[in-house]
Design brief:
The complex is a heterodimer of chains A (about 270) and B (about 240). Chain A has about 270 residues and is α+β, with helices and mostly antiparallel strands. In chain A, about 20% of the residues lie in helices and about 30% in strands. Chain A has an eight-stranded mixed beta sheet with strand order 5-3-2-11-10-9-8-7, covered by helices on one side. In chain B, helix 3 runs antiparallel to helix 4. Classes of the chains: A alpha+beta (about 270), B alpha+beta (about 240).
Chain lengths: ~270, ~240
């Protein structure tokens, strides 16, 4: 496993004109999980990282360009996540590469990403973009964002979380106000987050805790896992799911989802995506 | 119906430096440049984050500068990021500051319309592909591509062509025209204007074209050009992939 400093993050971009799987870069999931306190041999969640690609184009064997949108499903128990800039550059390398048809495209990407992630990755390819035309304004659920809170913590602070032990509810709480910074470049990343749970979570405390990620540096997947872990540890809900929907970087948006409940994750595009 | 009617087109950099030349070649050219920034955020006076989407409309008809100086989106993005951890009383304060600073960065912004759309309202926006504009038929093609002249990163986007009744141009002709740009380095405005010239040479009726580029760095661009000045603001919509 290469060090993160060997990745292309934070360095000048090189856009190759031919298919280049060597551009892909893997990051072990274990490192950050251990830092948070997650038992990497006994994950407290199952889940998926759902990536949507908006800029994918390639050539057929007549030299005609094709365009499609991609959805990539990476299971969260894969040993590695894919560094996003490397995936962006890898997908751009298809632009002047020749493939027979989209079946070959899908197989190629699935093989490359599965090898890197260390587990089977599924790729969906759509010729038309209407699947991305349906937008939800916000995550379905109760928005926290109208709560009148005073905030001063902009570094992750799990002590902000409060369990309202007299109140046990099953509900979905959402916020558009998740922001963190890239682990390497420090550039801002923006997300909506939904917490579905059964248990005692004080709403104002949850919003303040989410806002406390504002100046935190971490990859998208790591932030969502961190949120899951802190809520589980402090509020001890009986059931918990945390879903994040990030805005695009390099034509890709990343949507990590974690849960300790047997649920099916959706891929509903939000208005900022 | 014309089949192949475009000439060799890549005058590229020469045009970029002499917009006047471009204008004089075009029979009529009217247009709007729309820039959308999806990631504006600031703090209210209680330290709680606020969100907004910024839409800037540069109207070529209103500009005293010919051609309009394009907005440098990298500098614009840095400006917007400077609001992230700053407290402001309200969205109007933020709007004024953005406008003031934009004019310092790019004097032609003095004539632009700048609006901050509350994030929730942006969810109601209809996509251009699904919008009916009275009196117009249209065709659209996704996956246009050209290369950023500064960073070498590809721009990807969607091309729309509107005309009263049906646009009298074969869709395959448009695809051939777009294909020629695939690996060419241009700014978004150069791409739009060169494409406009090609389309104008092929089409007889009044038409409106829109190029909606997928966002980069949280900022997207829509270039609207027409040989007719009326009601171009009716075409201001983001595209599905933008």
């Amino acid at each position: 496993m290469k060090e993160l400093s060997a990745s292309l993050l934070g360095k000048a971009n090189v856009y190759l004109d031919k298919y280049a799987p060597d551009l892909l870069f893997a990051i072990s999931r274990d490192g950050n999980r251990l830092k948070i306190g997650i038992d990497t041999h006994n994950l407290p969640f199952h889940g998926m990282d759902i990536w949507n690609g908006f800029d994918f184009t390639w050539l057929d064997d007549q030299g005609l360009p094709h365009f499609g949108t991609l959805t990539i499903f990476i299971p969260c128990d894969s040993p590695n996540l894919i560094e996003s800039k490397s995936l962006k550059l890898y997908l751009f390398s298809f632009a002047n590469a020749v493939f027979k048809n989209k079946t070959e495209i899908i197989k190629t990407i699935e093989n490359d990403l599965s090898n890197l992630a260390g587990k089977k990755v599924i790729v969906n390819y759509n010729d038309n973009s209407q699947s991305f035309a349906k937008i939800s304004s916000v995550f379905p659920g109760q928005s926290l964002d109208d709560l009148d809170v005073i905030c001063s913590d902009y570094e992750v602070n799990p002590n902000l979380l409060i369990a309202d032990e007299k109140t046990i509810v099953a509900e979905q709480l959402c916020s558009e106000l998740l922001k963190s910074n890239c682990l390497v470049t420090g550039k801002p990343d923006w997300a909506s987050v939904r917490v579905s749970y059964k248990g005692p979570i004080n709403r104002e405390s949850l919003l303040k805790y989410i806002i406390s990620y504002r100046n935190h540096q971490g990859f998208h997947e790591q932030c969502i896992e961190h949120i899951f872990y802190d809520i589980l540890a402090i509020c001890k809900p009986m059931e918990l799911s945390v879903e994040g929907r990030y805005t695009r970087r390099g034509g890709l948006d990343i949507n990590p989802a974690r849960s300790n409940k047997d649920i099916k994750f959706t891929n509903d595009r939000l208005y900022r995506q | 119906m014309l089949n192949k009617c475009f000439s060799v087109i890549f005058l590229g950099y020469e045009f970029s430096n002499i917009g006047l030349g471009l204008r004089s070649m075009a029979k009529n050219i009217y247009g709007l440049d729309v820039t959308r920034a999806y990631e504006l955020s600031w703090l209210n006076l209680n330290g709680k984050p606020q969100l907004g989407v910024v839409e800037i409309i540069q109207d070529h008809a209103k500009s005293a500068v010919e051609p309009l100086e394009p907005l440098d989106t990298r500098v614009y993005k840095q400006l917007l990021e400077s609001f992230n951890n700053q407290p402001y009383a309200d969205v109007l304060t933020v709007k004024k500051l953005i406008a003031t600073n934009l004019v310092k960065l790019c004097p032609s912004m003095a004539s632009c319309d700048l609006n901050i759309v509350p994030a929730k309202n942006f969810a109601d926006y209809i996509f251009l592909e699904n919008q009916t504009i009275a009196g117009f038929d249209f065709i659209f093609i996704q996956g246009l591509r050209f290369i950023c002249d500064k960073t070498d990163q590809p721009f990807i986007g969607t091309f729309f062509l509107y005309a009263i009744d049906k646009p009298n141009i074969d869709e395959n002709v448009i695809r051939d025209i777009l294909l020629q740009f695939r690996n060419i380095k241009l700014t978004p405005q150069q791409f739009v204007e060169q494409l406009y010239l090609e389309i104008q040479n092929c089409i007889n009726n009044n038409f409106v074209m829109s190029v909606n580029l997928n966002r980069r760095g949280g900022i997207s661009y829509q270039g609207i050009r027409s040989n007719h000045p009326d009601n171009l603001r009716n075409f201001i919509y983001r595209s599905i992939l933008e």
